[in-house]
Model the fold of this input.
Amino acid sequence: MERAFNFSAGPATLPEAVLEQARDTLPLWRDTGASVLELSHRGPDFMEVAEQAEADLRRLLAIPDDHAVLFLTGGATTQQALIALNFAAPGQVADYVVTGHWGETAVRQAEPMVAVNLAADGATAGYVDIAPVAQWRRSPGAAYLHYTDNETIHGIEFAGVPEVGDTPLIGDFSSSIAARPLDFSRLGMVYAGAQKNLGPSGVSLAVIRPDLLERAGQPRAPIFDYRAHAAARSMLNTPPTFNWYLAGLVFKWMLAEGGVPEFERRNARKAAALYAAIDGSGGFYRNPVVPAVRSRMNVPFFLHDTALEPLFLEQAADAGLIGLKGHRALGGIRASIYNAMPQAGVQALVGFMGAFRDRHG
Ligand SMILES: *Cc1c(COP(=O)(O)O)cnc(C)c1O
Done:
């Protein structure tokens, strides 16, 4: 069977070249006599793999030298809990801007440790827009402000980094990291699970500004302490070595393809083609998100007759287009078009959508 175009939101499609490289290198790593999966994480051979991946990531994302880069386990959700433990004093207020499902999760994970102030909450309007910063109800002296750059389920994305003054800004970039250039100096912390835009599930990335690492935070075990992870270069305990290696291959692939600015151009082109197909369908397809904040990574849409959706998904799969089922919280269809999704995949989807509409419109 041929590889399909996989629009899954995560774990998501990986570059075919990376998969082939992983296959070719899997049984034997260089002259070690062992697979990369079998190397000690503290040995020189794996250390070289790990350090190369970090160096490539720093170059790819233009991460300032003084920022810590951590390769962690536990997914983005675990970081949402650790953020509160590490950066807020017990009972201190932290501001949360909730623009979709993952913002809700961030609040739920932090609530046991901090006094959450919902500075903005898009839930009542049904998560179709982002309130302007001037309307956010922020608390003076907040430990930090947390927001979700791209809401993977609701398909809502910030157009840029919000301006919040001196309050440290913490951004969940799980589904938008490396999709467009980012000025890290404007954020206290950026975190992302790898399984959307960076690699396989099982490894998460945290980029932390030095002043935040100095915070006392709350009583916590060393394994929940970002400072301890940073001091140990993410090797406080056994890191997810294979995932780290594979993410490193993705970083190299992105650099070779032209880096983040090139992916920003490609992503804009892909998103424009898909939204044009939806908006130009005469109401057959519908995306409810306000255009200015529509996601360039995850495009949820609905059919005018929802009863047609199972047939849409079945015939799409027959046409080699998979992973299109919407999240269970929202239903409908969702096309995730991360860096590794080629333009040809989006063109195939747009072509299928037109043909499906001709048959059923
Ligand atoms: C997928 C996702 C998460 C959750 O990631 P896990 O690695 O499953 O914990 C959090 N935030 C966003 C924006 C996501 O897309």
